Amino acid sequence: MIILPAIDIKDGNCVRLFKGDFNTVEKVASNYLETAKGFEEAGSEWIHMVDLDGAKEGRPVNTKIYTDVAEKTNLKVELGGGIRNLETIDEYLRMGITRVILGSVALKNPRLVKEAVDKFGSEKIVVGIDAMNGMVATEGWLEASDVNYIDLANEMMKFGVKYFIFTDISKDGTLSGVNAEQLRALAEGTDRKCSIIASGGVHTIEDIKICKEMNLYGTICGKSIYKGTLDLREAISVAKGE
Question: What is the DSSP string of 198-224?
Answer without folding.
Answer: EES---SHHHHHHHHHTT-SEEEE-HH
